[in-house]
Design a protein that fits this description.
By secondary structure, the protein is α/β, with parallel strands linked by helices. 48% of the residues lie in helices and 16% in strands. It has helices spanning 14-25, 32-42, 44-52, 62-73, 89-101, 116-124, 164-178, 180-187, 200-215, and strands spanning 3-8, 28-31, 80-83, 108-113, 126-129, 135-137, 156-157, 191-195. The termini are close together. 27% of the residues are buried. The structure holds BIS(adenosine)-5'-pentaphosphate and magnesium ion. BIS(adenosine)-5'-pentaphosphate binds next to helix 1, helix 2, helix 6, strand 6 and helix 9.
């Protein structure tokens, strides 16, 4: 079991590149954001809790996120992409302990570094599938049929946290709470900086180069 963490600001392209990693290498994609969006639809009690955090652009409390992750870890076998988790130092430390219990550890952290002005535009133009969560963009990643998902033909929607007011809150939280993780993983010599300003294929090439280097060609 290998664990690759994608770390970066909202809109930096973590979900987009995760999709490639799943398609090309069969990695298992674990996005805490996607998990939360799905719970939100299915469970009315949790809906209230998530309204107070997710819909406000705030982080879900660490203990709830860790419970969700514990639940997932016991069910999954394979190489994993962690998209948007961990994003606090508390989550990172707990994650290490959980992996250790399973004789596993983080193999590498990809830090998606991006100019803030660029990512606001990307988020404003983003649409996702209301059913599977696949990511699109009104400018640079249109579906084959307008506002219909290519995979399951369900409607594309805007995320509730994708408006300018919430983006500003999300960025502020990212810069104060998540950003310190970069130094944390740099100190552990696990982190590589990816230039996420570039177009998608070029971001992908950077990820590929690192994966090849780390694994001698064997992803
Ligand atoms: P989450 O869903 O993880 O959102 P995020 O971290 O804010 O990141 P995004 O999903 O917005 O961006 P992304 O980097 O995936 O970009 P994407 O590939 O879509 O979390 C949402 C919320 O859930 C949090 O605010 C919190 O409430 C909660 N939560 C989740 N995890 C948590 C945790 N661990 N602890 C506590 N709370 C948690 O790309 C964006 C757009 O840009 C798309 O339209 C895409 O097509 C386009 N694009 C991508 N790459 C490029 C490129 N290279 N060039 C041009 N366009 C591009
Ligand atoms: Mg995402």
């Amino acid at each position: 079991m290998k664990n690759f963490v994608l770390l970066g600001a909202p809109g930096s392209g973590k979900g987009t590149q995760s999709y490639n990693l799943v398609e090309k290498f069969g990695f298992i994609h674990i996005s805490t954001g996607n998990i939360i969006r799905n719970i939100n639809i299915k469970n009315k009690k949790l809906n209230i809790l998530f309204d107070n955090y997710y819909n406000q652009g705030k982080l879900i409390p660490d203990d709830i996120i860790i419970k969700i992750i514990e639940n997932y870890l016991h069910k999954i076998i394979g190489n994993l992409i962690w998209d948007g988790f961990p994003r606090t130092i508390i989550q990172a430390k707990k994650f290490e302990k959980l992996l250790k219990k399973m004789n596993s550890s983080i193999n590498h952290v990809f830090y998606f570094k991006i100019d803030e002005n660029k990512l606001i535009k990307r988020i404003i133009d983003r649409l996702i599938c209301s059913f599977c969560g696949r990511i699109y963009n009104k400018i640079n990643l249109l579906p084959k049929i307008l506002w219909i998902c290519n995979d399951d033909k369900k409607a594309l929607i805007k995320r509730k946290d994708d408006n300018e007011e919430k983006i500003k809150i999300r960025l502020k939280i990212y810069n104060s709470i998540t950003f310190p993780l970069i130094e944390y993983y740099l100190n552990k010599k696990k982190l590589t900086v990816i230039n996420a300003d570039m177009e998608k294929d070029k971001v992908w090439n950077q990820i590929m180069n690192i994966l090849v280097k780390k694994n001698g060609g064997n992803k």
